[in-house]
Amino acid sequence: xxxxxxxxxxxxxxxxxxxxxxxxxxxxxxxxxxxALNGEDALWQVEQESVDLILLDVMMPDMDGYEVCQRLKLxxxxxxIPVIFITAKDDVEDEEKGxxxxxxxxxxxxxxxxxxxxRVKTHLDLKAKTDLLMRLANVxxxxxxxxxxxxxxxxxxxxxxxxxxxxxxxLLLLDIDHFKLYNDHYGHVxxxxxxxxxxxxxxxxxxxxxxxxxxYGGEEFxxxxxxxxxxxxxxxxFKILHGIRDLNLEHAASPTAACVTISVGIxxxxxxxxxxQENLITSTDEALYMAKHRGRNQxxxxxxxxxxx
Length: 309
Ligand SMILES: [Mg+2]
Prior knowledge:
Layout: H1 2-5, E1 9-13, H2 17-27, E2 32-36, H3 39-48, E3 53-57, H4 65-74, E4 83-87, H5 92-100, E5 105-108, H6 113-138, H7 148-164, E6 169-176, H8 179-186, H9 188-205, E7 212-217, E8 220-225, H10 230-247, E9 262-269, H11 277-293, E10 299-301
Parallel strand pairs: 1-2, 1-3, 3-4, 4-5, 9-10
Antiparallel strand pairs: 6-8, 6-9, 7-8
Helix pairs in contact: 3-4, 8-9, 9-10
The structure holds magnesium ion (MG).
Magnesium ion binds at residues 14-16, 57, 59-60.
């Protein structure tokens, strides 16, 4: 929602300042406009600012537009920014090359400003729709936190990052105690409300940048904790356990406590090649099972892996 309120930002890249002004002045009526006079500066600016679209000159000294575009498409943080080439060249092969390196459109000079504006708007609107779909595809509809798909992608990515370190990666799986009894007693509408409150509390408890919460399925949630050892994971798990308890959501049907509680399983791994990401999930799940088995409303550690931290 906030994305729609924000004025969208366009980066104009051209080695000739007059060419920048010709586009920047009229576009500034509707957008935030940034500019760069060379490729290096363009690549630097997209890392500093949130850029929604790039108008890119092909012919520039040092690094030409094709190379700038290729580099943008290689970087995960910038690859989804639409690039429109603007150039005096009108050779068909150049246009093909532009599209081949990942540009969404190609405008040749001399151009008519209303056409440029219309194309810019079209590609910004497409980008907004794509972004929205990407967000929806990764968010759990009920609770608003990342979904299972997002968890799978996130864990895969963090596992690879941890292996490169190598650094320790920890995982929490947590489950609402006696949730079936809760639903039976209070009904599914109240059950959904309970899931939402637990999810919100979870998202709030995990404040460190890089940590990822997700709804794992049903009444089960997961937290990915990059660069976190057993002690660090334990701390987060307890914070969540107490946070949920402090919500003090009445659970009259629970044999464990008078309010909603959770059980948490923790596993921590150093991805050194001897174990897989599936091993980590399995052992976290076993730890969760132990927490349940030992009476719920508690945190349990996986004994795996024994590797030194
Ligand atoms: Mg030029």
